[in-house]
Design a protein that fits this description.
Layout lengths: L11 E7 L13 E11 L28 E8 L3 E3 L16 E3 L4 E3 L30 E2 L4 E9 L5 E7 L14 E6 L3 E10 L6 H5 L2 E9 L11 E2 L3 E10 L6 E7 L6 E2 L4 E10 L5 E9 L4 E3 L7 E3 L2 E9 L4 E10 L6 E13 L38 E8 L5 E7 L9 E10 L5 E7 L6 E6 L5 E2 L4 E7 L4 E10 L1
Parallel strand pairs: 5-13, 7-14, 16-24
Antiparallel strand pairs: 1-2, 2-3, 4-5, 6-8, 8-11, 9-10, 9-12, 12-14, 15-17, 17-22, 18-21, 18-23, 19-22, 20-21, 23-24, 25-26, 26-31, 27-30, 28-31, 29-30
Amino acid sequence: MMKRIKPSKRLLLTFCAVGVLASADAAWAANTSIVNCAQVSAMTEGDSDSTVNNAVWSSPMVVGDAKEDDEACVALTVQSVYDLGDAPDSYGTLAASGGAQHEIIPGLKLGANVDDETDGKPDPDAALDGTDEDGVNIPALTDGQALTLSVNVTNTTAKAGTLVCWIDYNGDGQFATNGSESGAVAVPAGTTAAALDVVMPQVPATATADTKGSSYARCRLSTDTLTASNPKGVATDGEVEDYKVSFVAKPQFDLALTKKPKAGQATTVKAGDTVTYTIEVLNQGTVDAQAIVITDYIPTGMSLDPSDTKWSVSGTTATTTIAALAAGATTTVDIKLIVDSKAAAGTLENAAEISAAQDDKGASAVDVDSTADTNPANEKGIEDDVTDNTNNDEDDHDIAKVTIAPTVDIELTKTLDKDTARRGDTVKYTLTVTNKGPDNATNVKVADVLPSGLTYVSDDAAGAFDTATGVWSVGDVANGANKALVITATVK
């Protein structure tokens, strides 16, 4: 008869896990094995071939008594994975170059995604690791701008972290380690998908030229102690993201103006003439301009032609407005001025300048190299048709010149000393030249050819009268002056 064994009424199994995984634990080594063991730790009856609860829990039972069949262990290999960068390798990207490398752990990341690589992926566009480059969006950077990056970070570990970002401002292919190209911010434990501000050094005024328009940025997050001196190297946890960044020159508002007589316009004119000038306005900047006010300073001796209705006149100034002028564009406007009837002979200088303008947003604009105003007296080193600031000549102001030809009114009178004469008698003719102005007369000549019934005897012109041609070289006659010549002849 078989002996009936009384079944156990209770069975207690004890499990032991060796090599526990803990996030942000610096002791978490690569490819760690987690051993999970179980043992019968108690029962009413004794075990026939094992010793119940004989394990020392502080030690793995992997090396326990192989004869003991009331215990069993299994091992789980935990594979460590890493995040590396994808900027060109001069920044430290490949592992062999000491590149930035982070072990990926739960709860510590930049942006929404993080993926792993076996090595860095140097790329001119920093785009080979693009699936996880979502922590920060860096817009085109402007020379001289103040810069704060908004970076999305998560740190749900039990340890505080540090976020450091670098931008290669000078285009030398490296991230500076002295803080001149980096900013940092603390990331508290328990941070969940928060946008943190990283205050960066101001973008240098020469960044666009230095970088030839583009360079690279890097952000690193870790619970390690990261500083400006750590743009590359191994971190025990976290993530690295690289980005290609672009630079643009600071927007410049820069208008220039030139003025000259209109094509085909004579530059020597006389009283009463209409003179047409062409004013050219150039947008030499990178910002569209609008509401550009042009002021023309009408000189003494001229006035605005009433038919020129594009201009409004007040006293000795005329103004007109150009509605809009795109960056890089040029436009022209003409102005007609009439030479006064009493204008003095000589050179008339007519100036025009930009007296006001707005930028593309409708704000009063500040020109980079000129001051928009209505004060011609503050112009220095004035040069005609110059669109730069050579010799301190502001390029929003220009002059044009015309010559007013002299206006003279020469009157000639001729008298005879007798009304009748006999053959052989002597007669005297007096010629008087009078300049009634308003300007001086020059090189005046009078022709007086004696008729065939008279014979030349003499004159008082001291050689200025040519008896062969009958031309009297009077010379210059001042305004209001007169000169006379007496010719003596006999009647044939």
